[in-house]
Design a protein that fits this description.
This protein is of the alpha/beta class. Helices cover 43% and strands 21% of the residues. It starts with 22 loop residues before the first strand and ends with a helix. Bound molecules: 5-nitro-6-ribityl-amino-2,4(1H,3H)-pyrimidinedione.
Length: 161
């Protein structure tokens, strides 16, 4: 979107065209009912924007805590233009919440910065299952699709810089 203030300013934007890219989708099994919906949202978004199914690699891992180390190996492999990291950390009754959520956020940011490979952050961090369901394909959208969209846009912006 442009306004009078940005008219005639050289602007770099990512085109939402995924054809030809190679994307890894990494997903935790913990809270799998929710995460399956995030996977569906991410794959649906990417294929609807032109990504060939053959160019998607789905990697299943135990939980959100393992996302950074697995994404780091994928990023370092040089085989992928971007990675969508998906998981669901639900506060519920677990004292693990802050540790798992914190490590996932911190670790994934580090992987992306260290490798230069963009990582779409599709990890839900919610207080309860209801909030997670809302963000996994019902009234608050689908965080997997959102992460895929942000990933695609970032890949296409980075290509131009
Ligand atoms: N992993 C999640 O992906 N979500 C959670 O909500 C969660 N909780 O609540 O504990 C969780 N724990 C598992 C963790 O990610 C590791 O797989 C496990 O600790 C083994 O390293």
């Amino acid at each position: 979107m442009s306004s009078a203030k940005t008219a005639h300013i050289r602007t770099i934007e990512g085109k939402l065209a995924a054809g030809g890219l190679k994307i890894a989708v990494v997903a935790g099994r913990f809270n799998d009912i929710i995460v399956e919906r995030l996977i569906g949202g991410a794959i649906d978004y990417l294929t609807r924007h032109g990504l060939e199914r053959d160019n998607i690699t789905l990697v299943r891992i135990p939980g959100a805590f393992e996302l950074p180390i697995v994404c780091r190996k994928l990023a370092r492999s040089g085989k992928y233009d971007g990675i969508a990291a998906l998981g669901a950390v639900i506060r519920g009754a677990t004292p693990h919440f802050d540790f798992v959520a914190g490590e996932a956020v911190k670790g994934l940011a580090q992987v992306s910065l260290d490798s230069g490979v963009p990582v779409g952050f599709g990890v839900l961090t919610t207080d309860n299952v209801e909030q997670a369901v809302e963000r996994a394909g019902s009234k608050a959208g689908n965080k997997g699709a959102d992460a895929a969209a942000a990933l695609l846009e970032t890949i296409r912006v980075l290509e131009q810089l």
